[in-house]
Specification:
The chain is an alpha+beta fold and about 400 residues long. The chain has 14 helices and 13 strands. Helix 11 crosses helix 13. The relative contact order is 0.07.
Length: about 400
């Protein structure tokens, strides 16, 4: 009986030992993680590598490219060697890794790129990988019409202020780097997109996301780049990229297919109202106010506006605009005031810019009517947030 019990105990110990060994084999995070932050160990093993890296929306090679790009872009040198090993295992060649670093020197800075070289060299040495040499292949030819449009934008927007930067952009960045055959155009775009998301530069993303899709990246793959980088650049930066990608996708859906002729959209004219427009709602305006010529641009445009005529003493309620507002004074005399600031008088031809989220009001002076044309952009479908009415005491307070 004792022998049976001992055998059961030994079997149990053996089984528990095997389970422990299997658990250790499944672990991917560094050992210290399980001692200091076991929750991080769980998410690393079960979610990041047990789920995200296995998703079919991006090939393992692509995931390695964008992961290494994110690590280099954000200066996470300690994590680079492990992911360079994984990248080599996933089919990224040494030459492609070298060119990835070269690409990122331009988009995230030379210090990050040079620091990455040191880390990558340690992996090359341990694997016996020799010096990378240039391919010797003829430089790629970029699409002429797209390049002409891009260069025209640079020459118009950059050259007047920074002519040397414009020259280097056209001659070196796109005239040389983007034509190098050591990376395919798709991979170059993929890496650049990943870097822009990782360093929090969504304003640069529309051009490069469109370029990536022109170079063969699918919508599903583009969306998966943001998903994957949530783990390597953080959720806030991944989430900031989503509305940018949404606008890119919508714009491409609205564009005609290549080779398909489409008639240009018709102009739209909002005719002047014979009756002077509609009365301004009493919860948004004080006094006699007429609103006319309301319009809203078609997506992807976000602009909208209208003409507002104030009788003497009439004004808006306090309000804000998520993306700001521009007022063009058509006639009469008016007042405009931000909270805590002076009350400024405006007249015909004056243009007023109200920055985003600044609480303010505007309207006619106490003794003269005023008409202005107002323009604002919508964010998430809303262009204004209305608040309480401006009381008479605040309205009649001193002006300058």
């Amino acid at each position: 009986m004792k022998k049976i019990a001992a055998g059961i105990a030994i079997s149990a110990l053996a089984a528990s030992g095997l389970e422990a060994e299997e658990t250790l084999q499944k672990r991917i995070a560094p050992p210290a993680v399980y001692e200091v932050a076991p929750g991080l160990g769980h998410f690393t093993d079960d979610v990041l590598f047990g789920e995200v890296w296995l998703r079919k929306e991006l090939a393992p090679r692509d995931r390695s490219l964008i992961t290494v790009a994110a690590l280099i872009s954000t200066g996470k040198t300690g994590q680079i060697p492990g992911h360079v090993r994984r990248a080599l295992d996933n089919g990224v060649t040494p030459g492609e890794l070298g060119e990835l670093i070269t690409q990122l020197a331009f988009y995230t800075g030379w210090p990050n790129a040079v620091s990455a070289v040191t880390e990558v060299k340690t992996v090359f040495d341990e694997r016996g990988i020799g010096a990378v040499t240039a391919s010797g292949v003829v430089p790629l030819t970029l699409e002429a019409a797209a390049e002409a449009a891009r260069a025209a934008t640079v020459n118009t927007a950059v050259a007047p202020t920074a002519p040397a930067l414009a020259d280097l952009t056209n001659r070196v960045l796109f005239g040389d780097l983007w034509r190098r055959p050591e990376l395919s155009p798709r991979d170059r775009s993929l890496i650049t997109m990943a870097a822009l998301i990782a360093i929090g530069q969504p304003e640069q993303l529309p051009f490069h996301a469109n370029r990536a899709m022109d170079n063969g990246l699918t919508r599903t793959e583009a969306a998966e780049v943001a998903t994957h980088l949530g783990f390597y650049a953080g959720w806030p930066r991944a989430m900031s990229a989503v509305p940018v990608l949404e606008r890119v996708f919508a714009g491409r859906e609205a564009a005609p297919a290549v080779g398909v002729a489409m008639a240009a959209p018709d102009l739209r004219i909002i005719r002047a109202s014979a009756d002077g427009g509609m009365a301004g709602p009493v919860d948004r305006f004080t006094g006699a106010v007429r609103v006319s010529g309301l319009y809203q641009g078609d997506a992807p445009a976000r602009i909208g506006g209208g003409t507002v005529a104030f009788s003497a003493g009439a004004r808006t309620a306090w309000h804000t605009h998520p993306l700001g507002q521009t007022l063009f004074i058509v006639s009469g005399r008016g007042w405009v005031q931000k909270e805590g600031g002076p009350k400024d008088e405006v007249g015909p031809g004056d243009v007023v810019w109200i920055p985003p989220n600044v609480r303010h009001w505007h309207g006619a002076t106490a003794d003269q009517p005023m008409t202005h044309f107002a323009v604002a952009e919508a964010r998430d479908g809303s262009s204004v947030t209305w608040m309480e009415l401006v009381p008479d005491a605040a309205y009649h307070a001193g002006s300058r």
